[in-house]
Amino acid sequence: MEQLDRPRVVVSVTMSVDGRITLSRSRLLMDADASKVWQSLAPASAQVLDKARSVQLDSLYQPEAILEGSGSLVADSAGPLTGLPTEFDYPADLLYSDFLPEEVVERPGHAKWFTVVDSRGRVTWEDEDHGEWDVLVLVARATPAAYLAHLRTRRICYLVAGDERVELAAALGRMRDLLGVGCVLSTAGGGLNGALLRAGLVDEIQLLVLPAVIGGLGTPTVFDGPELGDHELPTRLELLSSHTEADGMLWLRYKVVR
Questions:
Q1: Which of 8, 47, 115, 137 could form a disulfide with 158 if both were Cys (CB 3.0 to 4.6 A apart)?
Q2: Are residues 117 and 151 in the same domain?
Q3: Which of 51, 57, 46, 52 is CA-nearest to residue 245?
Q4: Where is the Bacterial bifunctional deaminase-reductase C-terminal domain (predicted)?
Q5: Confidence (pTM)
Q6: DSSP state of 71
Q7: How high is the pLDDT of residue 86?
């Protein structure tokens, strides 16, 4: 297996035949009605294949972290959280250093990280029973100080990587070095997946393909983000396996060719 200076990154998503991962830019799957329509596109074998994919990934890589962008949890139009206290006891140099409290990192039962890229400080975290999961937020030095103080008060872990926005390669490296994360599973939207792709950080792609076409200019796809530059080349893939179901579902597994 290839030796990396960061965790292995596997993009694992479900898409339509034309690569769409939701119904439209304004109908994201966090919306109950949109989610219901999306689920209606999945034939009987979809749930079976999704389970098989998870079992295979656990067997191959034992991923310790799921990666999502803040756009998977809040609307695109959402800005930084408001109503947070503007006065707090944390000095700036402390706020903009990594926050990994031992009682979370070493918590009995902790096994995996639900990791969210949120440099703007947009996601509200609710109290819940974590089970084997704990939240890890990836932030930048431009993230509002009030949000970082809020995370510290809530005892939510975060890593600081980048200035204006999260520098993904650096964040992944810190996840490996500080938390021992060897594999990250990106179930994110096209914006974050596209950023990972352009940065050369994707190692494998696992796709479940629904027998449906959605279309629509601007509808989010598996990989969005900047277009190829004049001297940039498409990312070449090697097919590792394919599986076809009689009801039209496909399961495709690709390795990124370096």
A1: 137
A2: yes
A3: 46
A4: 7-249
A5: 0.94
A6: G
A7: 85
Hey, is 61 helix, strand or coil?
helix
* Residue the block writes with tokens 């495709």: 252
Range(s) of the domain holding residue 171:
70-180
Element (H, E) at 251: strand 250-256
Q: Which of 144, 3, 121, 7 lies closest to 62 in space, CA to CA?
A: 7
With a CB cutoff of 8 Å and minimum separation 6, the contacts of 232 are none
- In angstroms, how far is CA 91 from the centroid of its own chain? 30
Domain co-membership, 208 together with 236? yes
DSSP code for 169:
H
Please state the domain count of the chain.
2
Sheet holding 204-210, edge to edge: 157-160, 133-139, 112-117, 65-69, 183-186, 8-16, 204-210, 250-256, 237-244
In the listed set 155, 180, 205, which residue is the last one of a domain according to the structure?
A: 180
* Percent residues over pLDDT 90 in the chain: 81
Beta-bridge partner residues of 185: 10, 66
Q: For residue 31, name the pLDDT band (cuts at 50, 70, 90).
A: confident
Q: Which residues contact 152 (CB under 8 A, 6 or more apart)?
A: 90, 95, 99
Token representation of residue 167: 């520098």
Residue position matching structure tokens 């098989």? 52
Residues 13, 107: one domain?
no
66-96, pLDDT tens digit by residue?
999 998 888 778 899 998 988 888 998 899 9
Same domain, 167 and 203: no
Rounded distance between C-alpha atoms, residue 7 and residue 258, angstroms: 16
Backbone angle region of 76, left / alpha / beta, with phi > 0 → left and psi within -120 to 50 → alpha: alpha
